[in-house]
Every structure is written in C-alpha cells, then in structure tokens.
Amino acid sequence: MPEDSDWEAYKVPPTRTPVSERTTSVPNPVAFFQTVFNYVIDAPVTFVREWIERQQAKNKYYYYHQKFRRVPDLSECLEGDYLCFFEAEAQWRRDRMVDQEIVEIVRERLGACKQREGPNQFQNCAKEAELLAQVTKAYQDRYGDLGVHGNARTCLMKQKHRMMEERKAQANASQ
Questions:
Q1: Under 8 Å between Cβ of 132 and 106
Q2: Which of 50, 54, 124, 135 holds its CA 20 to 30 A away from the CA of 168?
Q3: Burial tier of 152 (Cβ tally within 10 Å: 0-12, 13-18, 19+)
Q4: Where are the domains of the chain?
Q5: What would the pLDDT profile of 107-157 be if each residue is shown by its tens digit?
Q6: Tens of pLDDT along 77-86?
C-alpha cells in the first residue's frame, strides 16, 4: 500500500450519526400517540401481568402431575351417599384411562421390539409379547364386555359374577 493514501478516494464514514433537523415546530403525532399508548394501556397491563406472574411463581402448579387422592370403592359407599357414588365413578374412569394407557404403552414397546429385531422378533421379543398378553387379559377381565357406556356399577357387578363363577367351579372341582 502506498505511503500517500488518497483520502478523497477512500472517504472515512462520519463518526456520529447526523441529527435530523426539524423543519417544523409541530410535534410528531406518532410519538405523541406512542407515549399515550405506553402510559395509558401498556403500563397497566404490563404491571398486572407481572403481578400475576409473581403470584404464580409463588404457587407452582403442575397440572400434568396432578395426584388425586384415592376414594372409597363403589362397594364401600353407603346407601344413598350420592357424593361417594360420584367420586367412585370418577375414580373408576381415571383407573380405566390409566389401564388403557398401560396396554397402549406395552403394545408400543412390542411394536418397537418387532421393528428393531426384524426376523428374530419371535425369539427376542417373547418377553414383551408375554407381557402384552398378560396386560391385555387383565384389562379384558376387568373392563371387557362393558361397552362404551360401562360404569363403575356394571364393572363391580361383572367382578361379582366372575367371583361367583370361580367359587362354583372350585366347589364342583372339589366334589
């Protein structure tokens, strides 16, 4: 690079941004409306939102980890105790949903094992297949043949009838 650089060819940018000079004495209406909006609408809303966030930070609530207390079974409810009937029904529905998810998870595990193992799936996934058979049988024993409109009372009656049949079979086998 030559010693005598031509400053006209390589102009240096200004060190400071030039200030725009006003040509009028009337204030900018956009700036006025922005200021009014910030003080009248944005500031109170921001204050309320931050206050709510502070309150929620004190009381953390994780809805996806909600734990319900176990309520008495329908067989333990007193006659005419409709609140107990309702709670038992809600508990039964939650239990049914949990059991459905358990069956679905075991089924997905078996499917993943079959996909992973390929041709060797019968020998390498036998444990998962047996677990799926056990879980499905337990689900079928408890909730099978109840249909869409099944409830805690019909499920309890089904269990009662199954127990009576098992006792009858034991009595016939012992004779």
A1: yes
A2: 135
A3: buried
A4: 27-63, 82-162
A5: 999 999 999 999 999 999 999 999 999 999 999 999 988 888 889 999 999
A6: 999 999 999 9
